[in-house]
Structure formats: C-alpha cells, structure tokens
Write a structure and sequence with these properties.
By secondary structure, this protein is α/β, with parallel strands linked by helices. The protein has two domains: about 20-85, no CATH class; about 100-339, TIM Barrel (Alpha-Beta Barrel). It is built from twelve helices and nine strands. It has helices at about 20-25, 30-35, 40-55, 60-65, 75-80, 145-155, 175-185, 200-205, 210-220, 240-250, 270-280, 305-315; strands spanning about 110, 115-120, 165, 195-200, 225-230, 255-260, 285-290, 325-330, 335-339. Strand 7 (about 285-290), helix 12 (about 305-315) and strand 8 form a beta-alpha-beta unit. It binds pyridoxal-5'-phosphate and iron/sulfur cluster. The site of pyridoxal-5'-phosphate has 8 residues, from strand 1 and strand 2.
Length: about 350
Amino acid sequence: MQDNIIIANADDTPSAASWQRQLSRAVRDPQTLCERLGLGSLWQAGAHTGHALFETCVPEAFLARIKPHDPNDPLLRQVLPLSNEALETPGFVSDPLAEAEHRPARGLIHKYHGRVLLIASPNCAVNCRYCFRRHFPYADNAPSRAQWQEALNYLRADESIREAIFSGGDPLAGSDRQLAWLVGELEGIAHLKRLRIHTRLPVVIPDRVDDALLGWLGQARLQTVMVLHINHAQEIDRAVIEACARLQQAGVTLLNQSVLLRGVNDDVDTLAALSERLFDARVLPYYLHVLDPVAGAAHFDVSDDEARELVAGLRQQLPGFLMPRLVREIPGEASKTPL
Ligand SMILES: *Cc1c(COP(=O)(O)O)cnc(C)c1O
Ligand code: SF4
C-alpha cells in the first residue's frame, strides 16, 4: 500500500518544472479515472476495491493515449484498478523476488555480478497494476544524502562493480538536484563504467526529458544507458518519439523492457507492432519479462508455454535485432533466466 507515501517531487507551484506540475495533477482517484473514460458503475466499484490495495495514479499525458469507452483498451488495462486484485491466488505473494534478502545497504540491491540496483526514488509517475513492487516497503528505502554514504561506500569497496543501475519506484521521479548529486558521487568511483536508468517516466510524461535532466545526463563521464518500460505500441506517440530523440542526442543508448500481460500484449501481432514502433523511436527491445507472481496481479498471467509459443511466432515476423529476450526472474539465480 502506498497511501502513506508523500509524492516528494510532485510540485504544483509556478516555479516547478512542467513535468512536476503534470505529476502533481495526475489522476489519483479511481472515480475520476472511470468518469473521464466513460466507464460505468460496474467498473467504478471494482476500481475502488483495487485502489484500496494499491492507489491509482495516471498522468494526463498517458490518459490522453487511452481510448474512451473501451474497458479493454491495452493502456487502460495497465492502470485501471480492478476487483480481481483482491483475489488470493496460490503462489502469488507480496515479495516475489525475495529482494529483502539482498540489501547490503539502504537503497541498494546487489544480486548479480558487476551491477547493483540503487533505489534512487521511491515514487512512480504511474501505478501499473501488475507491478511486482506494489507491496514494496518504499518508505524504508528512500535514503537521504547522509544515508546514501553507506551504499556509496559499498560501491567504492567492491571493484567488481562496473555498472550502477538507478531503479525505484521510478528514479526519474526524483529531483534533478538529487539525481545530479548522486551521479556526481558515482563518477568519483573509478571502477564504475556505466550508469543505467530503468524508467517509465519519459513514456508517461515525455516532458520529463527537459533541459535540467539532459544537463546532468549528457555531461556524465559514465556511459549512459536508459531502459524504458513500454508494453504496447499505442504508448508511443509523437511526444515519446521526440523525448527519445532528445535522449539520443545527449548520447544515451535506449533499450526497452516489457512485461507480457494477459489482455494487453499477449498476441504475436501486438508484440510485433510494439517492436516496430520502438524502432520508429530508435529504441531496441531488450527484455520481455513473464509476470512476477505478485499478489493482486494473477489476472495478467500468461503461462510459460504460451509465452514460448508467442515468442516463437514473433521470431517468424521480425528481424533478430527487434526480438526481445523472453526471461523470468527467479530468486537466487545469478541472472535473469531465459525461458
Ligand atoms: C534485473 C536486475 C539487474 C539487471 O540485470 P541485467 O540482466 O543486467 O539487465 C540487476 N540487478 C537486479 C537486482 C535486477 O533485478
Ligand atoms: S513504473 Fe515501474 S516500478 Fe512504477 S508502478 Fe509501473 S512497473 Fe512498477
């Protein structure tokens, strides 16, 4: 439950950046979401049930890409709370990745060789109903500058670490001041070569890619990689393509990860269209994740056999460089596991 979390960088004052105002004005009320999209009382009741478990959050820029009056719209399904979220399903648990066991310092998760995750911001700009972090105790994982020192010391001490990965929440929900400071600290660590940012923000609020962001990102000594999170071609509009172009001009390599979701992208043509559309924005597909078994998201599940069949069909349609790698995250494994 995220109801207690203060959206620290959502800021509606006139001096705030455009993206911060957009974040502070995101639709956070299930009733409003349904009314705006012309969904009737049946959907509204379910939305209240789901919202009580994991709050609604949909920025206007994303809402604008949802077709009204269509409860099956693939973008809507990612963000609309449903009564199904209250169902208990065996095997679907609150911490499916057992991340709590891999935190050597506050805000830091080290599971794989050579790379670590830093929880650079506990907040998100959109709440995806299938999210494996929907039960994540974020309030315990948003370090202050002083508290970052422990994580930074851990990175300084382990020369096998080549890559720092900003994760979250969504790291780009953090302020540029805080992110620029953290990148500055990382740049002082000689054995670090790469900065990777896992984010959905340039997709849901493309104005996040503004001069302030490009300032610290474009000047970094570290090679920068951004892994976007897009599940359907309809998410990529003109504004997203332009945001991607600005990132590329700043020297950022762009990749995408998707989650295979029942009712959103669980057919070959939809996945092929996504890869094609990503390449329109000059983004390469990286991972296609099968769903992590998180409580409240079982209705999105696609079986491993069906996932393999879909990917086999996709391979017959696409050039190799537009094929995402189908993977699952298995707690205790040394990498993502190919299916
Ligand atoms: C997914 C993940 C990574 C990154 O894995 P890659 O295969 O390099 O993309 C790193 N650390 C953790 C904890 C992860 O879950
Ligand atoms: S943006 Fe990412 S971390 Fe945030 S709710 Fe969506 S999937 Fe989860």
